[in-house]
Design a protein that fits this description.
By secondary structure, this protein is mainly alpha-helical. The chain is built from 23 helices and no strands. It has three domains: about 30 residues, CD2-Gal4; about 190 residues, no CATH class; about 180 residues, no CATH class. Helices cover about 55% and strands about 0% of the residues. Helix 5 crosses helix 7. The chain is globular.
């Protein structure tokens, strides 16, 4: 028998290659695999790659759900969250230097700041000239007052915007990752110290920019549905979008006592169309078919009555938001979906319940009309095709319900005729005017603020009133805040 052929194992390979279980060529300062894929290598920046490694968290045993890569889903701790609410935990990333050349670093910052104030700031708001002015003038001025994490967030988003034009620019890639890593580190540290009147505005704006970054980063993770065939792990749901946008909501819920008087935050919030949801289930709405058979599903999957209630509410509320946004998508209303769905709905996505996936596909179909926005470009097609790939074409129950998002996502332009879209654009302005008469987004938050206090006096045996509230998750966070404050008061009194 001939001797066995010797094989040299890669024992000093980079952590990314080890995680992917592939052979590393161990070339410094950047191995061949990381160079090929245009990603960071810990040979080059050890602290940065180590910072982006997620802490081990339990995954659902009933699912093979995949989250985004750590570079797009690393989020700071969310303020004042109920301990029973699971959230992804990541090590706080450390900022990495852009370059050893101080002059080059300064020139990069000037380039990014100029691009932000002249171009990027105009792309963050949708159909809101007032918000555009705030993002262009007021926000940078606030960042210059000492809110370093806000300044870094501006530069990170600006770098990502520039990178959308030149995806292979290594300097922009490093700048985007570096400034966002610095943002997350300082932002997380500030949240851990507590939100105050002096930092509430900066934290809100930073949370919004983190949400923008999380969304826009998705365009660099894969090119189109064709790339999915080359991925051994299949399609990965963009769960980081939900976590980042709900992080914005959490900051608002935790600091509304100060934000309600802000000349910066209130105009941004008020520029959003007022929620006008029909949660009764009595009317025939466009996405009502997504709720067909929901009772049988709930009984079949969940034995616990409390869990059944949460699941039913999660589906009903998500579909109600779809129906509302479907009528006024050009206003940016579909983006509200990410912040308003309940934590239970996100959990249903994580375990890949077919109904939750079908609802998500319809949501991404709504984003087709916003395809001209750079950080949403191609989202509808890419995500709808990815979700559809998780279904069997012979599935007679769910395949017909995917036809609308498929038809919309594959439409050749974002100017979709009303007969294909399923809504009359002529009534869009009338609906907006009617909603504004009932109060804007700030009015909704004010109402919720009053309900937060009232709910604390309700006995636990009373019927759950959350099915009539748009912000299920925000209310949970508010309850945790109130419990914490009550505990602190009791502790203080005892002393």
């Amino acid at each position: 028998m001939p001797p066995r052929r010797s094989h040299k194992k890669s024992r000093a390979g980079c952590r990314r290659c080890k995680a992917r279980k592939i052979k590393c060529d161990e070339i410094h300062p950047r191995c061949g695999n990381c160079t090929k894929h245009g990603v960071a290598c810990d040979f080059e920046h050890p602290s940065f790659v180590d910072a982006l490694v997620p802490v081990d968290t339990p995954r659902p045993t009933t699912s093979t759900s995949n989250c985004d890569s750590p570079s797009t889903s690393t989020l700071p701790p969310t303020p004042s969250v109920d301990s029973s609410t699971p959230l992804p935990l990541y090590r706080n990333p450390e900022p990495l230097p852009l370059t050893s050349n101080t002059k080059s670093s300064r020139m990069m910052e000037l380039k990014l700041l100029h691009h932000y104030t002249t171009i990027t700031c105009e792309t963050l708001a949708i159909s809101s000239p007032v918000s555009e002015k705030i993002w262009r003038d007021t926000v940078p001025n606030l960042a210059f007052t000492g809110a370093n994490f806000l300044a870094d967030a501006l530069l990170a988003v600006s770098a990502l915007h520039l990178r959308s034009h030149t995806p292979q620019d290594q300097e922009l890639i490093r700048a985007s990752h570096s400034y966002m890593a610095s943002t997350l580190s300082e932002y997380g540290a500030s949240l851990s110290k507590g939100i105050t009147e002096s930092n509430a505005e900066a934290l809100f704006l930073t949370a919004a920019l983190i949400a923008f970054q999380s969304t826009a980063s998705r365009i660099f993770t894969r090119d189109d549905s064709g790339d999915l065939k080359e991925r051994s792990d299949g399609y990965a749901l963009p769960l980081s979008w939900f976590h980042s946008f709900q992080g914005v909501k959490a900051v608002v819920a935790s600091s509304w006592q100060w934000l309600r008087h802000s000349g910066i935050v209130v105009p941004i919030i008020e520029s959003q169309p007022a929620l006008n949801l029909d949660l009764s289930g009595d009317n025939l709405n466009f996405f009502g078919h997504l709720l067909a058979g929901v009772e049988d599903e709930i009984v079949g999957y969940d034995d616990d009555p409390a869990s059944q209630v949460l699941t039913r509410q999660a589906y009903q509320h998500a579909v109600a938001v779809l129906d509302w946004a479907h009528k006024i998508p050009h206003t940016g209303a579909p983006l509200v979906f990410l912040a308003t769905v309940s934590r239970r709905f996100v959990e249903l996505l994580e375990i890949r319940r077919p109904r939750a996936l079908a609802i998500l596909a319809s949501y991404f179909g709504l984003l087709k009309v916003l395809d001209s926005v750079w950080w949403l470009r191609g989202v509808a097609r890419r995500e709808v095709m990815g979700i559809v790939s998780l279904f069997d074409p012979d599935d007679e129950e769910w395949w017909p319900r995917l036809q609308w998002p498929l038809r919309i996502a594959l439409y050749e332009s974002d100017n979709i005729p009303p007969d294909i879209w399923g809504a009359d654009w002529a009534v869009e302005k009338a609906l907006l005017d009617q909603a504004s008469q009932n109060g804007g987004f700030v009015s909704h938050i004010e109402l919720l603020s009053q309900m937060f206090s009232a709910m604390q006096n309700m006995p636990q045996t009373m019927p759950d009133a959350l099915d009539v509230i748009a912000y299920q998750n925000a209310i949970n966070r508010s309850r945790a805040l109130d419990r914490q404050m009550l505990l602190e008061n009791e502790t203080h009194s005892s002393h």
